[in-house]
Amino acid sequence: MFRTVLAAVGKSSPLGAATSGSVWTAKARPVSASVWKAFQATSGYHSSALVAHDGCGKGGDGDDSKTGLNLEDILAQNKEWVDNMNAKDDQFFKRLASGQSPKYLWIGCSDSRVPANQIMGLGPGEVFVHRNVANLVVGSDLNFLSCLQFAVEVLKVEHIIVCGHYDCGGVRNALKKQDLGLIENWIRAIRDVARLHKDELFAIEDEEARSRRLVELNVIEQVLNVYKTGVVQKRRHKTFLDGESFAKPRVHGLVFDPAEGRLNRLEVNFKEMIRNYRHVYDLYDDEADRI
After folding, report:
1. What is the pLDDT of residues 116-172, one digit of tens each?
2. Is residue 192 among the annotated active site residues?
3. Which of 111, 178, 241, 283 to pair with 55, CA 20 to 30 A apart?
4. What is the pTM of this model?
5. Angstrom distance (rounded) from CA 96 to CA 124
6. CA 279, CA 285: separation in Å to the nearest integer?
7. Among 3, 130, 165, 213, the one annotated catalytic
8. Is 56 in the active site?
9. Which residue has the higher pLDDT, 245 or 60?
10. 111 labelled catalytic
11. 249 close to 155: Cβ distance less than 8 angstroms
């Protein structure tokens, strides 16, 4: 069995001969599995600059029958899905092509067990989605902030849902003493949540119960982080002054339980929590009076 290594190589590249100037190029090299393993062990090069795959084929990595990942199967399933949708509603794709006007922005975990549309019982075009490891709302994450601004200012979503899930790998690892490398910079935000609630958390002796509680506390803190953002405060302030039935967007905290398939609303009085901190985080007067 052979693997193909796609490597970014340049002047200082550990992967091959230097290239002219400082421009990096991609080179493909077939190497045996044993050489690949030895390379990984000795080089410390495990970033996205490397892509390893078995074989080669049309439009991708070929027949990955051992892993069950076959692009031809996926394309066939897509065609079947299209046929089924057209049979049910021959106007479905015409409406889909006309644009989107979702009422919800979903901020969830990247975990493959937590697909937003399916577990909400909604179809394509009904939920605008942002996902990352452990459903974090980080003020320096331009990807998230761009998504949030587009959802609030352009799509004008009425609800923002922050959804965590039990058995979250990011949360579990944030409770352990270990260094996972680059991702530690991300899950440190979860460790910060644990610090804020350390008395409650570490009074829980059972590790599973402690993990589940941190999932919930993490959702609560991320909901508060959404409220802190200027783009959300600005629109809530405007809709409040416009006399709408409630300040928009409303922000909700949910937790998904993969073992049951159920979404659970957290029983948290966010209005009271916001009132306690508004003197610190409010950017507009009277914005937080109506949740």
Report:
1. 999 999 999 999 999 999 999 999 999 999 999 999 999 999 999 999 999 999 999
2. no
3. 111
4. 0.75
5. 8
6. 10
7. 165
8. no
9. 245
10. yes
11. no
What is the separation of C-alpha 257 from the centre of its chain, rounded to a whole number of angstroms? Answer: 17
Residue 113 among the catalytic residues: yes
Token reading at 283: 């950017």
Parallel, antiparallel, or unpaired: how do β-strands 159-165 and 250-257 relate?
A: parallel
Q: Among this protein's residues, is 159 annotated catalytic?
A: no
Look up residue 92 and give its two tokens.
Answer: 């479905």
Which among 3, 61, 109, 163 is annotated as catalytic? 109
Catalytic one of 3, 61, 111, 235? 111
Q: Helix axis angle, 142-149 relative to 230-241, nearest 10°? A: 20
Angle between helical axes of 270-281 and 207-228 (0-180°, round to 10) = 50
Q: Which residue type is seen at 194?
A: A
Cα dihedral 220/223/229/232 (nearest 10): -150
For the segment 208-266, what is each residue's pLDDT rounded down to a tens digit? 999 999 999 999 999 999 999 999 999 999 998 998 888 999 999 999 999 999 999 99
Q: Is 113 exposed, middle or buried (0-12, 13-18, 19+ CB in 10 A)?
A: exposed
Checking 207-211 for CB contacts under 8 A at 24+ apart, the result is 207/175, 210/175, 211/166, 211/167, 211/168, 211/171, 211/172, 211/175
Distance, in Å, from the CA atom of 238 to the CA atom of 246, rounded to the nearest integer, reads: 11
Q: Render 59-96 in DSSP notation, one character per residue.
A: TBS--BTTTTB-HHHHHHHHHHHHHHHHHH-TTHHHHH
| Unique residue bearing structure tokens 């394509």 | 124
- Residue spans of beta strands (DSSP E) within 10-156: 25-32, 50-54, 104-109, 127-132
